[in-house]
Amino acid sequence: MIDATRLFTPAFRDYCKESTLKVNKSLLENYYEQEFGEQYRVMNNGLVANTSDLDRDSVALQHAYIAANKHPLGNKDALDAAHDGSTYSQLHQKFHPHICDYLNKFGYYNRVSSSRLRFRTNLGCFVTVCMKVAVAGGGANLA
Fold first, then answer.
1. What is the 3-state secondary structure of 14-71?
2. Is residue 141 part of a domain?
3. 13 lies in some domain
4. Number of domains within the chain
5. How confident is the model at residue 80 (pLDDT cuts 50, 70, 90)?
6. Is residue 52 in a domain?
7. Residue 74's closest CA among 112, 101, 36, 106?
8. What 3-state class would DSSP assign to 8?
């Protein structure tokens, strides 16, 4: 995992330059308002998810791994790579299955603080992990 952290840092920084996916912030906002937003509001006393403070890299990665992810809410972690030609996605494909296996094996899907939803992380899987927690009802507030 130390290698993953070291390798993801520059890959996160270079994601927008390398990715072949066209970033669609409207699609991401729509996802947070519609599909995910409903669960978010239920779990957070009617509060609305806020994407306005996300930087360009966070928007691009959340678009690729969440909004454009074909897997349904609660199973976003099934995506190992966005297949966008980026170093980030190559690393994600290598490390994501191991990280998710670890999280499942030790029951961390039910313990991860879902406040990480908006946390700007180099490990994209944490975003999808928190979405799974949110849907499963295992997390606290998502904001």
1. HHHHHCCCCCCHHHHHHHHHCHHHHHHHHHCCCCCCCCCCCCHHHHHHHHHHHHCCCC
2. no
3. yes
4. 1
5. very high
6. yes
7. 36
8. helix
